[in-house]
Structure formats: structure tokens, C-alpha cells
Amino acid sequence: MADRPIGVFDSGVGGLTVLRALRSALPDERFIYLGDTARLPYGTKSGETVTRYAEQAARVLVGRGIKLLVVACNTASSVALGHLAAVFAPLPVIGVIEPGAAAACGASVSGQIGVIATEGTVRGGAYERAIRAVRPAAEVVSIACQLFVALAEEGWVSGPVAEAVAQRYLANVVGERPALDCLVLGCTHFPVLRQAIAAAVGPRVRLVDSAETTAEVVVECLLRSDLRAGHRTRGQDGAGQAGVRFLATDAPARFARVGAVFLGEAIAPEDVELVDL
Ligand code: DGL
């Protein structure tokens, strides 16, 4: 069981920022990453639809024999985590909302915390609940920044357009709340826009994302369940690039090209398998 891969799922390539943190925390593990590129974005869809899509994606990964599922998509984590955990029990299912909330509570001194995310994540209020569960007196303001997803997908992650959009979404929010000192990047696509977001909110606001804290939760879960893989010799395990197999529901070549920005390294198009859910 311990030698099985970890499944990671997102609506597209954004979750590769989470995969990156997972690989660095767990170099001996193998991963299967599924990006539901055919149906992105999830952030504008209803909770029912996202839950259905998330279950279908998870089923493909479960069919490939994963030992643990990471829901790297914030929107899917916020609406479908409980459903996935119930449907696929006893498989451990880990989302990104609680780790992101824990990172925010650790980073904020004032307790005034901003969350930027997709429309679906903001509508569901999962970040507010997770933050208040850790820090009941926290004041949380959530802002839907859906255009950031398109900018990141287009590769316009810095420069005047990204900066203007970030200003438009964020300048007032921060200007009206002088004590706000922490902003959660509550969407897989936002870490690549970090520079433009930081320029819009100014130096007093710390930016946190859930990638590293999610990786810590996964490490703890593997240790607790005695599921850590033994030492792996790279290239001898049948997985693609450094222990990762990539699956996409549409346009594998685009997945490889855009995904490289999120993963921080090149992805060979032939390493991306087209799958149908
Ligand atoms: N993966 C989604 C999230 O983290 C962002 C992209 C989308 O809207 O599907 O919320």
C-alpha cells in the first residue's frame, strides 16, 4: 500500500503549484496529477456541478490505485471535500482550505484577514469558517477575483495588465482596512500572480497560500497512517517525469505548455496522457 502513488486533482494546471510543494516535501513519493482541463473553470459553476465533476475525477485516480487523494482545487475543496471523503472512505482525502486557513492564522497579527478566491469558493464561505474555527475573533473579508484565473492561464502573470487588474480588485479593499495584514491566495492560479498582487496590496500585507501547509498535512497523514513510501530510485518506477504521471481531460500539449509556469519546470507533452472522465 505504501508504494502506491498519491493522487492530486485540480480543475486544470493551477494545482501544479500544490504538486510542486508536495514533491519537494516528499521526494520519495510517486504522484498522479489529474487536471480537468476540459471543464475548467470550476470557480464559476454551481456547487452541485463541481461536486459531480470532482467525484468523477477522483474516481479515475482511485481506479489507478492511489493511496491518498489531495484535492488541490480550492473551489472543489470548499464544496466537495466531505462528499469525496464519504464516497471514497477509507481513502484519506485532503483539501487545501484548512491548511490555507491555518497558514493565514499563523501569519496575521491583527486578525484582519483577506481571502481572494474564485466566485464559487467565496460564495461557499469555507475559508471564513476554517479561519474562524482556528481564530474565532478573526475578521475575514473575501473577494472573488475570477479574472486572475484567465490571466494566469494566458501566462500574463506580471506586467501592466496583471497589475491593473490586481489594483482594480484589491486597492480599495486594503485601503479601507488599515489593519488588514494577511491575504490568502485562495485559488490554485493565484500564486503565479504573486508579484502583481503584492504590488496592489503593499508591503504591510503578507501573502499566504496553501501549497506548503497542505504538503505538511499530507506528510503528517502519511506518517500517521504508516503510508510513507520507501526510498525510491528515480526513473525505475515506471512513472513519468521524476515520479509524476500527468493526466488531462483535454489539450495535453496546452497542459504541458501552461503547466510549466505553475510547476516551475518544463513538462514534456508526451508525458501528459489524455483521459475521459
Ligand atoms: N482550481 C480553481 C481553484 O483553485 C481555480 C480555477 C477554476 O476556476 O477552475 O479554485
Secondary-structure topology with pairs:
Elements: E1 6-10, H1 16-25, E2 31-35, H2 47-63, E3 68-71, H3 74-88, E4 93-94, H4 97-107, E5 112-117, H5 119-124, H6 126-134, E6 139-144, H7 147-154, H8 160-175, E7 182-185, H9 194-201, E8 206-208, H10 211-224, E9 244-248, H11 252-263, E10 272-274
Parallel strand pairs: 1-2, 1-3, 2-9, 3-4, 5-6, 5-7, 7-8, 9-10
Helix pairs in contact: 1-10, 2-3, 4-6, 4-10, 8-9
The structure holds D-glutamic acid.
D-glutamic acid (DGL) is lined by residues 10-12, 14, 40-43, 73-75, 118, 121, 149, 187-189.
Q: Can you walk through the features of this model?
A:
- The protein has 277 residues and is of the alpha/beta class.
- It folds into 2 domains: 6-95 and 212-274, 3-Layer(aba) Sandwich (Rossmann fold); 97-209, Rossmann fold, CATH 3.40.50.1860.
- The protein has helices at residues 16-25, 47-63, 74-88, 97-107, 119-124, 126-134, 147-154, 160-175, 194-201, 211-224, 252-263, and strands at 6-10, 31-35, 68-71, 93-94, 112-117, 139-144, 182-185, 206-208, 244-248, 272-274.
- The longest helix has 17 residues, at 47-63.
- The protein starts with 5 loop residues before the first strand and ends with a strand.
- 51% of the residues are buried.
- The model has no long low-confidence stretch (mean pLDDT 94).
- D-glutamic acid (DGL) binds at residues 10-12, 14, 40-43, 73-75, 118, 121, 149, 187-189.
